[in-house]
Design a protein that fits this description.
The protein is an alpha/beta fold. It has 11 helices and 11 strands. The radius of gyration is 19 Å and the shape is globular. About 50% of the residues are buried. The structure holds 1,4-dihydronicotinamide adenine dinucleotide (NAI) and oxaloacetate ion.
């Protein structure tokens, strides 16, 4: 079992981060030392996410953990001449050291979907993986901000909350389900249909992260477009809700979104780091503990700050179509949340 070879590769380039990285993940104080750990770092999401975090000037230490494959990924990423120090950790006996001192822990560990599966079909395997990783987080870096990518997010976030509660370390301000890919897709699809430059587009996406629980609020999209009919909005909503399935089917058995997810995960982690560093007015959508509906967890816009969630923002005015979508998603989201809580309580 423990033939795990430790690999701690350290590279600290003396040069400052490249201009590319500065453009990609901008501003904020880059002087605060921040450690980011990626759990599942050798996977389809983990590898490009490790690359993008290595390009982020706000990161000073990058810990790459997986049950296999991290020595190669860490060696590779560590040669990039940006300022952060990279270390690879492999196997459970090295998890503690990977986590110690982390400010942000990103979790893309677990199995992805194949065609014909729902995200909930991943519960059986991923629930246990998330539970054990969160148990270690509670022990080794209880104050870290946690970015949960592993599916089904609608259940894995409640599992994490229960694990932290049991350990006495739960801080609802520090637990985030990463729903940024839904926003990324909504922006791209809206810009394409409305024929506006995507760089200026914003679309809030609320609810959860599976099928109809993903509710893009195109009525609040900016810039406003008068070119879109009700039918266009319905089609954009459906495409956003099924964006993950579109990729799963296109990959035809070779997994789900990895590159766009790594991008989305890097955008969200960058926002968390900026918030921690005191950069004002950082707002992103995320699946968090919430009281804006009757459900205990809900995705909406949140303001990020020095302690994590500074404010959970309300839903704002909804169109009739969105109001209907909101009511329709609640039963499924409620049952996914309850499934996660039940699992964590019984295991
Ligand atoms: N939140 C979101 O928007 C999205 C979530 N996902 C989810 O992200 C997860 C990962 O997807 P991929 O990277 O494509 O899968 P993958 O199979 O390519 O990579 C998963 C990695 O997790 C590792 N792993 C398994 N058990 C582990 C453990 N106990 N500790 C640490 N690492 C462990 C594996 O060794 C593997 O390297 C899936 O659950 C997928 O559904 C995927 C896309 C979007
Ligand atoms: O669809 C999947 O299984 C992966 C995922 O969450 C996404 O791409 O949004």
């Amino acid at each position: 079992m423990s033939r795990f070879v430790q690999t701690a590769l350290r590279s600290r380039a003396s040069s400052s981060p490249s201009s590319i990285s500065r453009r990609s993940f901008s501003s904020g104080s880059s002087h605060t030392e921040r450690k980011v750990a990626v759990l599942g770092a050798a996977g389809g999401i983990g590898q490009p996410l490790a690359l993008l975090m290595k390009l982020n000037p706000l990161v000073s230490k990058l810990a790459l953990y997986d049950i296999a494959g991290t020595p190669g990924v860490a060696a590779d990423v560590s040669h990039i001449n940006t300022g952060s120090e990279v270390a690879g950790y492999m196997g459970e006996d090295q998890l503690g050291r990977a986590l110690e001192g982390s400010d942000v822990v990103i979790i893309p560990a677990g199995v992805p979907r194949k065609p014909g599966m729902t995200r909930d079909d991943l519960f059986k395997i991923n629930a246990g993986i998330v539970k054990s990783l969160c148990t270690a987080i509670a022990k080794y870096c209880p104050n870290a901000v946690v970015n949960m990518i592993s599916n089904p997010v609608n259940s894995t976030v409640p599992i994490a909350a229960e694990v932290f509660k049991k350990a006495g370390t739960y801080d609802e301000k520090k637990l985030f389900g990463v729903t940024t890919l839904d926003v990324v897709r909504a922006k791209t699809f809206y810009a394409g249909k409305a024929k506006v430059p995507v760089s200026g587009v914003n679309v809030p996406v609320v609810g959860g992260h599976a099928g109809i629980t993903i509710l893009p609020l195109f009525s609040q999209a900016t810039p406003k477009s008068n070119a879109l009919s009700d039918e266009d909005i319905k089609a954009l909503t459906k495409r956003t809700q099924e964006g993950g399935t579109e990729v799963v089917e296109a990959k035809a058995g070779k997994g789900s979104a990895t590159l766009s997810m790594a991008y989305a995960g890097a955008v969200f982690a960058d926002a968390c780091l900026k918030g921690l560093n005191g950069v004002p007015d950082i707002v992103e959508c995320s699946f968090v503990q919430s009281s804006i509906t009757e459900l205990p967890f809900f995705a909406s816009k949140v303001r990020l700050g020095k302690t994590g969630v500074e404010e959970v923002l309300g839903l704002g005015p909804l169109s009739d179509y969105e109001k209907e979508g909101l009511e329709n998603l609640k039963p499924e989201l409620k049952s996914s949340i309850e499934k996660g809580i039940k699992f964590a309580k019984e295991n």
